[in-house]
User: Which sequence fits this backbone?
């Protein structure tokens, strides 16, 4: 259905959406909540930007490629924030965001 | 991250979003376009309802389960419409929508 | 463009999306943050459910009406939670969610 | 709630989402359907990009401003396409997209 160039990016975006939604929800129930606020904010934005990029690429829109630039930036900002925290969901989200940025970068090239 | 009960539903929803976006875009470039209109409309709605269900389940929201009912209905309506058309993207979309409805039904049970 | 029955509901949904996004962001910067968690969670879900309802009604989808039921429930849950907190953004969000539930209920009738 | 600089942009984005969803749905029921395909595709993308920009600005995200660039481009592309067609919904959509691009441009400045 989607070709071999686009499919891994769609998968990476889906993984990133799942990791960000899960991380935001989990952060809200951590003990040191004030410290987690920038992480929650980054997760929320990253999930939404990845969701639109996923949508546009899935439908073969020419605007999909234009979103990649912004998507890479948001994923990297989220990875940088999440990587500061030791919680499993944060570390996992940071790694997933980095992989997503990498996948988007390959496609943008 | 997401447990073994929820993960297959998230995967089925993602597959369904991809199939519906692709089918809608492909239908718009078929020769007998007037015949494809109900299929395009069903795809558009199904992709959006699956996207919200995916979002709510991914974040562990209690409203995720409430959406399943509507998601099953929209997936079945889309499968019924797509299955009328012989194009590969329609047949593939019909099968994917049916699998998604099935996955949602298991989780709702 | 949209008729006089649907337009006030679209406006109420838009107001509700704006109030919920603003309330969630503001709650994250309140002092007694742990108390605000259920409010943030309700806001997040309410914004997303209203967004899909707005989308489906705007496009004239038959599934728009089906979403109203769930939208009313999510708006009322969000109003109930927000109304427990004295912050302006919470009180404003509670009132906006109640108006949105009311508008959806009129259309569903 | 939202300040006097951001509120008119949120309103313009909401109007644009409504016009694009309505135009896409209406185009699908026009007689010369093949001619309307680029318009339907532009509407679909424009509605989705405006929806994310609306979301990010409503929550006060720093990424909201980054999306403006892309949003302006998508609105202008949609206006250019819609303005080629005489249907009321196309002409109305073209004008609304142009106003939205203008509002986004003021905020980006």
Assistant:
């Amino acid at each position: 259905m989607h070709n071999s160039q686009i499919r891994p990016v769609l998968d990476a975006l889906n993984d990133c959406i799942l990791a960000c939604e899960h991380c935001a929800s989990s952060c809200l129930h951590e003990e040191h909540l004030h410290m987690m606020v920038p992480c929650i904010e980054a997760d929320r934005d990253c999930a939404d930007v990845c969701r639109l990029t996923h949508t546009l690429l899935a439908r073969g829109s020419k605007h999909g490629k234009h979103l990649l630039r912004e998507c890479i930036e948001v994923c990297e900002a989220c990875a940088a924030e999440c990587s500061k925290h030791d919680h499993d969901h944060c570390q996992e989200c940071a790694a997933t965001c980095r992989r997503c940025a990498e996948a988007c970068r390959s496609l943008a090239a």
Observations:
- The CA atoms of residues 80 and 94 of chain C lie 7 Å apart.
